[in-house]
Give the backbone structure.
Amino acid sequence: MKTLCTVILFSLCCMLARAMDDAPRAIEDIMESIIERNPEADLEQLEQQLQDLQQHPINLNTASPELLSQLFWLTPEQQEQILLYVYHHPMQTLYELQLVPGLHDYDIRNLVPFVCLHAASEEPSLAQSMRRARHELLVRSDARHIEQTPNDPYYGQIRYAMRAGNRFQLGAVFKREPGEIPNARSRYGAYVELHDIWKIRTIVAGDYRASFGLGLVMNASLPISKSFRTTQLGLEEQGLRKYCGTSDDFLRGAGVTMRFGLVDISAFYSVRQPKKQLWQHTAGLNMQYHQERWRVGITAIEFWSSDSLRLNPMYYNALYFRGRQQVSLSADAQYRYKRLCLLGEVAVSENKQWGLAAIGGMRFAGTDYSLLLLGRYYSPYYDALYASTFGEGSRVNDESGVYLGMDISRWRHWKLTGYLDFFFFEGPKYQIRETHTWGYDLMMQALYLPSERWDMQLRWRNKRKGTRDIYGVRWQMNNHWRAFSLRTQVDANLSRESLSPLRLPNHSADATVAASFAASDDLGYAVSAFEQLEYRVRKVPIVMQLRLQGFYAPTYSCRIYTYENDVLYSFSLPATYGIGARYMLNIRYEIASMLTLYLRLSDTWYARQWANDHQSPTHKTDIHLLLRMRL
């Protein structure tokens, strides 16, 4: 009996020790799960957040519900079970995560790199945190698509960050795009973030982002997609936070959140100059009342500009906002009772005329399953500038739908996820010129993880939108050894053009708008397969990744997205389109404890005949180089 207990304890120790040393793998799994269902989103901030959590893990013994919500890949029920377990008896080792109800092996694997255990102690003062502050300097230089931009293919980035515990952060960033002459309109910025001073919960200045409610009027964080994050709808971290990325989707100014008992009040102001002689102003106010079961909030946003927003006139953006001033208002609420959660938000926005938007639903969850029913209605005249929430389209405008999602993990080594979404468009959308069309999106996925040595994933998806049916299948298998990891993945897509779209009768529809969209191909298919090898050198602190990929995707409608690792705080999601092959090589070398070098090489070869037919180069070569210094 003692021998058996020793073997079991040793196996658990090996599994968790491997997980603690496998943060890059956990980050890759989380990023890929989100990116593949939302490829057009700006996910640089998510990469930054995960890397930041890895460097500053959450202490489970002292974590508050708000702090634990940063682990967004866990369900609300799993977070509650962790808090309940720690409340009754604080954890002594991370091995006790095996005893938390609802946490499975794959959950623990993606959780351990971002948490730690320390005895409860007094929070250090701001002065003490400043003396122990950590500094980070990143210098990056890329050569992108060398064959396409031979004159100036160079991308540059310099980023500095300083963090003093969880209370104070500041940083600065500068970016140069290929072919760009640095000037006053180049991407540069700085930020300061401060927490927990008297009644002040958060202060931000410089570049920042804001998220409130379910995202109908203000959500600058990661857009909610049809993935496991849907179970987190309304439970993401709310409020103001600094922005240290390089995209142009941010606010610039200052904001503050103050807490008075159970009420949080946030106010912020932003002024930006995205173009010459164009100034954009944004002011907002949010009030939230929250307790154990209830959360109620109201949000008001006003935008005004020195000139009207200009968009190229297209058939699908006729009702997009083009004015100089806009006011958006919303009210959101959430109620939780045992396993049931009710949530929703209603908003109005000024756009030619006042438009209405509403989203609401219910979630029922246990320790090993969760079900979500969600309904939404976005008026054709609703188009809030900073809105970003659940939907089929990339814009919160002219859409209705019903979504049903499930997540089942009743079996120890199996996890089943799936969803079915019906959506309806009153007017034309991108690549859909008809009016009053509807479609559906169906996905089923099975994950089998019998051990830390290997796991397997199988996914099937069918989507009908406009005149096109899209079918997709993915099979993936991962094998892990002490110094090696091997990933095999095969993707196949099929696109079929139907004779007519799914439409509801509308006798008043404009005949010119209802004209059919000219399809390039009646039937198209694509196949992609790759093998990726990762090797961690024992005697030298070097990690290498090599991927070899072949693909056949002659039509753009059948393109395949495959996630690739990149240098720190970055990611790559190339759209596999064409006929050819691709390789990718990543190298991470820790020169010293304070200095790390990242190098990424990638090249894509296209079949000469296909490249000539599409007037494209036969090669696309990228070189990314990053040097990281930490003090």
